[in-house]
TrEMBL record, chain A:
SUPFAM superfamilies cross-referenced by the UniProt entry: Metallo-dependent hydrolases
Requisite cofactors: Zn(2+)
Organism annotation: Aspergillus taichungensis
E.C. designation(s): 3.5.4.4
This protein's name: adenosine deaminase
TrEMBL record, chain B:
Stretches assigned to coiled coil: none
MF annotations from Gene Ontology: adenosine deaminase activity; metal ion binding
Record domain Adenosine deaminase: where: 244-516
Catalysed reactions listed for this entry: adenosine + H2O + H(+) = inosine + NH4(+)
The EC number(s) this enzyme carries: 3.5.4.4
Protein name: adenosine deaminase
Organism for this UniProt entry: Aspergillus taichungensis
Pfam families: A_deaminase
Enzyme class: hydrolase
Length: 593, 555
């Protein structure tokens, strides 16, 4: 028996239709009155209440004020981008897998490492890339520049050598070896030609170009090998079942080879390329988290004993870059002095003294203080309360301003010590919170954060790759924005975590792609926030809060930068309208924007 | 700390924990934390604990911390962890013993133990399998639809015997199940069982966080298959009996099944199926009553059905489905207790597009004088808002839903969180079977509990996800183990909630609300079941003290 075509179709749609000939579908025959209608008075009433309710909730969003202030051009651009995004979700991202080739499945919001190769083929990407993004507030120096760029610099610098903790002749040895770069100014012993030789003596230095040329597979293979020591592989990124601790063990190792960032010519090139790439990505200002290191001057082997050297190099590079044509739009960079939270408390106190000393010498460069490393395993802020109280008191005595920008709540826990760090961070008057991943579970703290105007530096890709959220769709960002928590988007460690660019474009892309409620306007608000909460200059707390609230209306540096960003934003929106307006003439302007 | 370090610190003027200044800091910190805890869902429950219960809570937390630490470094909190903690975990033992109240969110077809129903399918005389196309290729039998049906028709020897696994099969032809099994090209009957199991269950591999709507549709994919089996009386009866047994064994006393009525019901040995679902409801009721008369069933209070319409039905079929619901309710008033719409929220129509139909349904109920409240699924999708189905939450609220299924995106809506509390709407949360989170710790449940939203944990689709047992122990254990903040009071509160929000009787909105508000102080069925639960809970705490007292004795 053949099914009637319509039944067949329903059957395939998963709508269950009885397909046996003997069965007659029960035709209901009752005297029910009337039929469902969209024009029914009650239905219309429901639709009205619904839209009022949604509007009321939208009013609580942190980006509400920004949306209200949008110009007509920006509103139009927002509507166009909304249409483009939806079109790409339907026509570009929705690709079903097939039996036998399930990996073909593609969908909007899938895990970042899987989505990354496709992103750059989208129109939304070319828009996001061009967007003015304000300030990069949360990134760790050693992981800010793509590995390839760093490697190029190493290859092109005279006297660079590589050494390995063991020979790397087998896959297993390659996996277990650690590698180190250094600069030497003497001629090398020629006995060891390659780190790949089975008779390679551990830790022997080999000129980098020679090591690359003698590597099986040549330079490309050598690059791949070095990259495998400095980046999390996509295969690892998606293994959420192995948990947070496992990925952190790997993640921390990948910082090892970046010790090369002490040789002056490399450091200088690094800064130059970094600033250039940030500007290319629409970023005007950066606050770099790092523990200041040593500097080995050009041609030397030993580090300069004077810790000022590191700051001088940074200072000079910022100034030099600002003189270049590209650097015209660059507002500058500051450093958030970081220490390792797993260090012993005495050492932490020692380093605090160092921070205080350097703040006195380089007040314009030192922005604030923070503790880094896996939050779940290091000291909690509570454990360090005596040191932190002491530090604060010292800043008062010395009359310097070093506010806290604490990492807090970068955890899956609810009620564990990392989660509770959020309470301490607030009580210690942190000006921003790094990650704040668990904040959305805390009603009282959410209110405190809003009242005290504390911004959360959200790093969506980092949280995903370090296994807090399986993908962008599971990220708590929407919950924070909906409650009115100020947030900005950062990239944390883009060279290690897989963004593989210095800028913010991938993190911005994920944010607009993942959530319907964001849109171009929401993304604009996040960029705008990043400037409002940037620490451009030393300020007492009351001035800091005042400037955040005044925003572009004030006469501070901050207000000036915000006005400059507004101009960039307007011309960006105009560009969208000019470029895509003709293709999306009907994109209607949403009343909720 | 080393003496040397201490001296150094004192010399540098680094404050010590004992210093008044630091002590003051700590006091401020404590009060901030306790300020937040006042809002928690179980704040009152916690305050009202008897001394014995308070001690039991302490013991349970201690056990949780010990076991959690032991598991650190292992693959902890994977949801589909196959190594059951049942044998080793003391926490598990405790959760198992807890009086769990009601199971409020579970699909009937997905609650069925898959191995069991496969056995029934093979053992029931007259059962046939049919498909709308031959299942000849590997891809066909991996994904093409098929179903079962009962028929009294016997094929004579001379007639050609249809074979569903070959290209010559005529779509719609009935093949006896035993014959189809023995002809199965990939390993005969054993292979057939294996294949059926795969088509009905979902066990996704670790490391591949499955796409949201891919896993979400699985219960829907298996629905036609399982429903076609459950539409034959003997199989329905044996499955219900088995489910009731499993529930009662896990200290669950009452259940509300979300049931999709998609296949006409056939009585045992009947030539033609029944019109409507009156007969189905009678059978359902008989089985509950019979079970309650058995020894195992003595503690069991009953079972009811939430009539569930698939979201994807075309309008005309949708309306017919609603009418069938009202008819069945008129004939057997004790069975249907609510109405819901199911199907992946990301696909099909959002509630807002269905509002005309829903108001029509409400009018229908009023005209016929029946009470069938809405108990909607809402906010079970990922992502945030826009005009899409995330806004189902708003509709569900405005349509007066009494509970909300899943509500996984509710925490993204501050206004709705307040309204849910104000309107006394319970969230039915399913941690393990819902693919919202890979690790239970990234589930947004704590964000709701900390804001005082009432929640009960549910199992949703235990059979389809290969759990093969109708218990709430895994759900509650997962929560207790995964969330440091929860503790015994946290899960006990959710169990108490499940009774408070059960639809034992048909009630008007005001009766319903006062039943929830009054709790134990009321005088209806609900109040007496709550009182009974509190007595059991005290007994449970006593048992904890007897069993695990050594855990805290070393204080």
């Amino acid at each position: 028996m053949l099914l009637p075509p319509i039944m067949n179709l329903l059957f395939l749609l998963g709508v269950v239709v009885w397909c046996v000939s003997s069965v007659v579908s029960a035709e209901v025959d009752l005297d029910f009155v009337g039929e469902p209608s969209i024009n029914d008075r009650v239905v219309q009433h429901h639709l009205r209440s619904r839209s009022e309710m949604i509007t009321q909730e939208m009013g609580q969003r942190q980006d509400h004020a920004f949306r209200q202030s949008l110009s007509p051009v920006a509103r139009r651009a927002d509507a166009i981008v909304k249409a483009i995004r939806q079109e790409e979700i339907d026509n570009f991202w929705r690709v079903p897998g097939v039996v036998g080739d399930e990996e073909r499945e593609r969908f909007a919001g899938e895990m970042f490492p899987k989505a990354r190769p496709h992103i750059e083929n989208t129109t939304l990407w070319s828009i996001v890339k061009r967007m003015p993004k304000g300030a990069l507030l949360h990134a760790h120096l050693q992981a800010m520049l793509p590995v390839d760029v760093l490697l190029d610099t190493v290859f092109h610098t005279e006297g660079m050598v590589i050494s390995a903790s063991q020979d790397v002749s087998t896959p297993l040895k390659r996996e277990n070896a650690t590698i180190t770069f250094a600069h030497v100014n003497h001629t090398m012993n020629e006995i060891h030609r390659s780190i790949h030789d089975t008779n390679y003596v551990p830790n022997t230095q080999i000129p980098i170009n020679q090591a690359a040329d003698t590597f099986p597979g040549g330079r490309p293979a050598f690059r791949e090998f070095v990259k495998s020591k400095m980046t999390i592989a996509p295969e690892d990124s998606v293994r959420h079942d192995l948990g947070v601790d496992e990925i952190w063990r790997k993640f921390q190792q990948y910082f090892g080879p970046t010790d090369v960032l002490n040789y002056e010519p490399i450091v200088r090139t690094f800064y130059r390329k970094l600033f250039g790439r940030l500007v290319d990505d629409g970023i005007n200002w950066v606050e770099i988290r790092t523990a200041p290191g040593e500097i080995v001057h050009n041609g030397d082997e030993a580090a300069d004993p004077n810790p000022d050297a590191w700051w001088n190099v940074l200072h000079e590079e910022i100034d030099t870059f600002k003189q270049t044509p590209k650097g015209k739009g660059f507002w500058g960079a500051r450093v958030i002095f970081t220490d390792t939270r797993s260090s012993n408390r005495t050492l932490i106190a020692e380093n605090m003294k160092l921070a205080l000393g350097q703040k006195q010498k380089f007040p314009y460069l030192v922005s604030g203080y923070d503790l880094v490393g896996q939050e779940d395993l290091g000291h909690s802020l509570l454990e360090l309360a005596p040191e932190l109280v002491w530090f604060k008191r010292q800043t008062e005595i010395l009359n310097v301003t070093i506010p806290f920008f604490f990492h807090a709540g970068e955890t899956l826990g609810d009620g564990n010590s990392t989660d509770l760090n959020l309470f301490d961070a607030l009580l210690f008057q942190t000006r921003r919170i790094g990650h704040g991943f668990s904040l959305y579970k805390h009603p009282k703290l959410t209110i405190e954060v809003i009242q005290k105007s504390v911004l959360v530096e959200v790093c969506p890709i980092s949280n995903e790759v370090l296994r807090l959220a399986t993908d962008i769709l599971h990220h708590p960002l929407p919950a924070m924005v909906a409650h009115g928590v100020p947030t900005a988007i950062s990239n944390d460690d883009p060279s290690i975590l897989g963004q593989n660019i210095a800028g913010l474009s991938y993190d911005f892309y994920q944010t607009i792609q993942g959530f319907d409620n964001t849109g171009l306007a929401g993304l604009g608000a996040l960029a705008h926030n990043s400037i409002r909460w940037a620490n451009f200059q030393d300020q007492p707390h009351s001035d800091w809060i005042r400037d955040i609230h005044l925003a572009e209306r004030g006469d501070s540096i901050k207000a000036r930068h915000l006005r400059s960003w507004n101009t960039q934003w307007e011309s960006f929106c105009q560009w969208i309208v000019d470029t895509y307006g003709a293709k999306y003439p009907a994109a209607e302007v949403n009343s909720h924007v | 700390m080393e003496q040397k370090d201490l001296e150094w610190e004192l010399e540098e003027g680094i404050p010590q924990l004992e210093d008044p200044f630091i002590q003051q800091y700590l006091k401020g910190r404590d009060s901030l934390i306790s300020e937040e805890q006042k809002q928690r869902h179980d704040a009152n429950f916690r305050k009202a604990l008897t001394p014995m219960a308070a001690r039991a809570c302490k013991i349970v937390s201690r056990i949780r911390d010990q076991e959690y630490r032991q598991m650190v470094g292992k693959h902890r909190d994977r949801l589909d962890d196959s190594s059951s903690p049942a044998e080793t975990s003391r926490l598990w033992k405790a959760v198992q013993k807890l009086p769990k109240g009601s199971l409020l969110h579970v699909y009937l077809h997905a609650a069925v133990d898959i191995d069991f129903i496969i056995n029934e399918a093979l053992a029931t005389p007259g059962l046939h399998i049919c498909a709308s196309q031959p299942l000849a290729q590997k891809e066909d039998y991996k994904s093409s639809p098929f179903q079962f049906s009962y028929s009294t028709r016997r094929t004579s020897e001379s007639e050609a015997q249809p074979n569903i696994w070959t290209g010559t099969y005529n779509p719609g032809d009935l093949v006896p199940v035993s014959r189809a099994a023995s002809l199965f090209p990939d390993g005969g009957e054993t292979g057939f069982r294996c294949w059926l199991q795969q088509r009905c269950t979902n066990t996704h591999e670790p490391g591949h966080s499955a796409r949201n709507d891919e896993t979400a549709t699985l219960p829907e994919v298996s629905l036609p298959i399982l429903n076609s089996l459950l539409s034959y009386e003997p199989i329905l009866r044996s499955c219900l009996r088995r489910i009731y047994k499993q529930l009662a064994a896990d200290n669950i006393r009452y259940v509300e099944f979300r049931t999709v009525f998609s296949a006409p019901f056939t009585l045992e040995g009947a030539n033609t199926p029944e019109d409507g679902y009156t007969a189905w409801c009678r059978v359902f009721q008989e089985e509950v009553e019979q079970f309650k008369r058995t020894d195992e069933g003595q503690i069991f209070h009953g079972a009811r059905v939430i009539w569930t319409t698939p979201r994807s039905l075309p309008t005309k079929r949708f309306v017919q489905n609603m009418q069938e619901c009202v008819l069945a309710k008129l004939d057997v008033p004790g069975v249907i207790c609510g109405y819901d719409i199911a199907g992946p929220a990301d696909q099909g129509k959002p509630l807002v597009e269905l509002t005309p139909l829903l108001f029509y349904f409400r009018k229908l109920c009023a005209e016929e004088g029946v009470v069938i409240p809405f108990l909607f699924h809402a906010g079970a999708n990922l992502g945030d808002g826009g005009d899409g189905v995330d806004h189902d939450l708003f509709d569900a609220m405005l349509l007066g839903t009494r509970r909300m299924g899943q509500g996984s995106s509710l925490h993204q809506h501050p206004l709705l969180v307040d309204l849910v509390k104000e309107k006394k709407i319970l969230i039915e949360s399913c941690l393990r079977s819902h693919p919202i989170a890979d690790s239970v710790q990234s589930h947004p449940l704590p964000a709701l509990l900390s804001r005082g939203v009432p929640v009960a944990l549910c199992s949703d689709t235990p059979g389809v996800y290969g759990q093969n047992a109708n218990t709430l122990t895994p759900e509650y254990w997962t929560a207790l183990h995964g969330f440091e903040c929860l503790g015994l009071t946290g899960i006990a509160m959710m169990m108490e909630n499940s009774i408070r929000w059960s639809c034992y009787d048909d009630q008007s909105p005001s009766e319903w609300l006062s039943g929830i508000r009054e709790g134990v102080t009321g005088n209806g069925v609900k109040a007496s079941r709550l009182r009974e639960w509190y007595e059991e809970f005290e007994k449970f705490c006593e048992w904890i003290l007897d069993e695990f007292d050594e855990v805290v004795s070393d204080d």
